[in-house]
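Researcher: Please generate the 3D structure of the following complex. Treat every line as part of one assembly.
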Amino acid sequence: MKLNKCPECRGKIEEKNIDYILLGVNLGKFPTMICSRCREQFYEDSVLDKIDKSAKEKGLWGLEHKTKLNLVGNSLAVRLSKNQIEFGKLKKGEEVIVYPESKNKFIIEVTGFKKS
Ligand SMILES: [Zn+2]
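Model: Done. Output below.
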């Protein structure tokens, strides 16, 4: 559905072909409805389907998974899924830094060498 006014702020909508970036990967240019006031972006359903398709083709799908913490000695270990390992090109022994952003959100930052 094409929008004339922004559903958030009633600002004027402009349509442009702009790059869609997901997880740092450019999925290509897609028709995007942009609010000239709050800069919020909107997409038609048919465009969202194309964005999903492009994300799947580029392996940016199924990167979230539910897992349990495993006890290893006195530590807890997190398992990463096959999709996550492939996406990050991660290898056994690669160095990561783990730090909390809050009590229920932890970041795993890969600092080891990465193959491109
Ligand atoms: Zn707006």
